[in-house]
Amino acid sequence: MNTDNHPTLTRDVVVIGAGASGLTAATELKKAGLSVAVLEARDRVGGRLWTREIDGAMLEIGGQWVSPDQDALIETLAELGLDTYSRYREGESLYLDAAGAQTRFTGEMFPVSAETEAEMERLIEELDALTAEIGPEEPWAHAKAQELDRISFARWLEERTDDQEARDNIGMFIAGAMLTKPAHSFSALQAVLMAASAGSFTHLVDADFILDKRVVGGLQQVPLRLAERLGEDVHLNTPVRTVRWNDDGVTVVSDNVTVHAKRVIMAVPPNLISRVSFDPPLPRRQHQMHQHLSLGLVIKVHAVYEKPFWREQGLSGTCFSPYQLVHESYDNTNHGDARGTLVGFISDEHADAVFRLSAEERKQRVLESLAAYYGPEALNPEVYYESDWGTEEWTRGAYAASFDLGGLSRYGADQSAPVGPIYFSCSDFAAKGYQHVDGAIRMGRKTAQLILAAQGEAAPSSYAAANSH
C-alpha cells in the first residue's frame, strides 16, 4: 500500500475504533487536554450500535436496552440529553414447552411443573451464590476458578439436576440469550462472569430488569453525539493496517491517514485485533490469548406490523422457549409509533442451521416460529429484517467475545493489560457491564484514566505539541 500521499497527523493518543468505548476514551482524554484522533474502518460510528431505517421503520440493528444497574450508560445518556422510555410489558407472557404446548404466565418463573420449577429455583440460587462469591472483577483469581473453567456450563448443569427442562431453561439464559454459543462450548466460570457482570443470575432471568428501557430515537445516538462533539478528530472509512510501536510512541498507518502518537487504544472486539499488523509483533501471550477468544452468533429478527395485535389478546409480547427456533421474543414497538414491532433472537447452532437455507426459506421458518407464539397474524409483517453481525466485515459476530474452556482462568488477567504504548478497550473486556454498552463506556473511562496516569508520570508537555514541528 502506497502511503506517500497520505496526510500525517501528530496526536497524543490515536484511537482505533469509533464504538462507544473508543469514543468515550477519546472524549475523556480530550477533556483532560490531550489531542486525539479516532480512526474507524466503517462509514459510520457506533460499532455494534446501529439504528437504521428499513422500509420506513426505525430498527435497532444492534444493542438497544438499558437496565437499572447500568450506571455508566445512564450517566452518559443524561449528559448527552437523551431520553428513555420503558419497554412495553403489560399483559401476560408466553412459554412453549418441548411438545409445543403454549402457556400464558406472569412474573419471572416459567409455567413448568412443580418439580421443574423447584429445580430451576435451586439452580438459580446456586448460581446467585457463586456470582456473589466470585464477582465480575477478577473471576480468574478465585480459588474455584480453574475448577469451574475446566467444565462446560452444560456439564455443570447436568451434574446438578436430571431435569432436562430445568437444564434447558437455565442454559438458555446464558447460552442463547447472552453468550450466543452452545452451553457445551463455554465454561461454568464464563457463565458466572456473565451473571456477575449483570449483578446476579436472577437479573438475567428477569426480562423486566435486564431489558428495562430503550432510548428515544435509538441507542446509536450515544456514539453519534459523542462523535459530534469530537468533530474532525473522527475519521471514517479509515481501516488501520499497521501499528509500529516502541517505547517512544506509535505510528498508525491506515488507508487514508498516518498518525504519530504517544499511545494507541485498540477499541475493537478482540477477534479483530489480529486484523492489524503490529511491528514489532505483539507478545506471545497476546497472540495465544486472542486465539482463545471468539464471538458468538445470533440473528436478531425484526418484524413490523400494522398494529401491535398481540396486545389486543392481552399479551405483553414477551415469549420464551428453548425448544423454538426463536428462543425469545419481545414487543419492540418504537416510542410514539402506532405500528407494532416484534424482535426475536435465534442463536448459535440454530442460527447455523437456518443460514444454510435460502433467504425466503429462512424468513418462512422464522415467521412460523413467531406464529407459534403470537398466532397466524405474525406470518404477515409489513417490514421484515434480519440483523446478522456475523457477516459484518468489522465485527464478525455478536454479541461479544468469550473464552473457550479454560481460557478465562488462563488469560483473563491479561486480556486488557497494556503492552507498551498499546491499550485495549472494549465491552468484551469489561467486568460490570460485560458485553453491554455500559461496559464499553466503563472500559473507555478506565482506559483514559490509565493513559492520563501514565501521562502524569511522563513529561508534562503535550506529545502532539512537542512534536508538531
TrEMBL record:
Its cofactor is FAD. InterPro entries: Amino_oxidase, FAD/NAD-bd_sf, Flavin_amine_oxidase, Flavin_MAO. It comes from the Bacteria. Coiled coil: none annotated. FAD binds at residues 21, 40-41, 240. Gene3D superfamilies: FAD/NAD(P)-binding domain. It is an enzyme of class 1 (oxidoreductase). Its EC number is 1.4.3.10. The keyword RNA-binding does not apply. Substrate binds at residue 345. Keywords: Oxidoreductase. GO terms for molecular function: putrescine oxidase activity. Residues 21-452 form the Amine oxidase domain. Belongs to the flavin monoamine oxidase family. This is Putrescine oxidase. It comes from Arthrobacter pigmenti. The lineage of its organism: Bacteria, Bacillati, Actinomycetota, Actinomycetes, Micrococcales.
